[in-house]
Design a protein that fits this description.
The chain is built from 7 helices and 8 strands; from the N terminus they run ααββββααββββααα. It has 287 residues and is of the alpha+beta class. The protein folds into 2 domains: 155 residues, no CATH class; 100 residues. Helix 3 runs antiparallel to helix 4.
């Protein structure tokens, strides 16, 4: 990698990190507002009814619940995440369980957020649990490792932001794959094992070797850049090996870091153009 390429990559990393931190900062400001509301809020008696709810859940003003709803609303505006059916249940002492149905463009899940009111000034997150529902395995395999990592760190704002970023990148990937799949040599499949994502199979109609080129496209959380990155792996057999050798620069471009929408459009366009040319020259089925 040249010094110029390295500078461009560093600039892109800093730009992406800056955008993500702005979203997180917006949520932190709401958290501070929650803290100020908690200072004005006197906790209700810890009387438990037969259904397990405290007196606060039996018609009394739910100021504390409103603060969590406020946080959810802020998450929706800052990250594009939608929260529905936000509810609260008293557990013990100053500890409450908030539940909600979270909906975004790709992932949907039931959220359990356990919080503790520390004194009269702040909320402390004790546990975050996500129960994903109706999410395809190709996405779930991508999400699970880093969701568990961030949930363990109990950083609600950060987790919502990264989930939103993953959702946005999924939409971008599908948009590009829809165009790629129109090529007569391409077959797109969901990858339901390993790291998930999608598998793109490329094969000439005249080639005796099935699936001459295989590309796996997955989304990976990168802690260093605080973002979701597009990752590719490529394999070839038969005449596909010769194709990758002749078009090594195009192949190398798939392994670049911090690929944005313009980059992704270009590398796929270059690859498909090269495949068309390779086919026209009769090299796919050459002896």
């Amino acid at each position: 990698m040249s010094e110029e390429d390295g500078d461009a990559e560093l600039f892109e990393l800093e730009r992406s990190k800056s955008e993500l931190l702005k979203k997180i900062d917006a949520l932190k400001k709401v958290s501070e507002k929650i803290g100020s509301q908690c200072r004005r809020y006197k906790l209700p008696p810890k009387k438990i009814f037969g259904n397990g709810h405290s007196a606060a859940n039996s018609g009394q003003s739910n100021t504390d619940g409103n603060t969590v709803k406020l946080l959810c609303d802020a998450s929706r505006h800052a990250t594009g995440v939608s929260f529905k059916n936000v509810d609260r249940k008293w557990l013990k002492h100053d500890t409450y369980l908030y539940t909600a149905y979270v909906k975004m463009k790709v992932a949907r899940f039931f959220l359990d957020l356990t919080v503790e009111t520390k004194g009269e000034s702040e909320l402390k997150i004790l546990d975050i649990t996500c129960h994903f529902v109706g999410v395809a395995d190709c996405y779930l395999l991508e999400i699970t490792p880093w969701v568990q990592q961030i949930a363990t760190a109990k950083d609600f704002s950060y987790m919502m932001t990264v989930l939103s970023d993953h959702s946005e990148q999924c939409v971008l990937r599908v948009k590009i794959l829809d165009k790629v799949n129109k090529n007569k040599y391409v077959t797109v499949k969901q990858c339901e094992e390993g790291i998930g994502g999608f598998v793109i199979l490329i094969n000439s109609h005249t080639d005796n070797e099935p699936n001459s080129i295989k590309v796996q496209w997955s989304l990976k959380y990168t802690e260093r850049s605080c973002r979701i990155d597009h990752k590719f792996q490529m394999w070839a057999v038969g005449s596909g090996l010769e194709f990758m050798k002749e078009n090594s620069q195009i192949v190398e471009n798939f392994y670049r870091k911090s690929l944005n929408e313009t980059d992704l459009d270009k590398i796929w366009s270059d690859l498909l153009d090269a495949i068309d040319k390779f086919e026209e020259e009769g090299k796919f089925n050459a002896p």
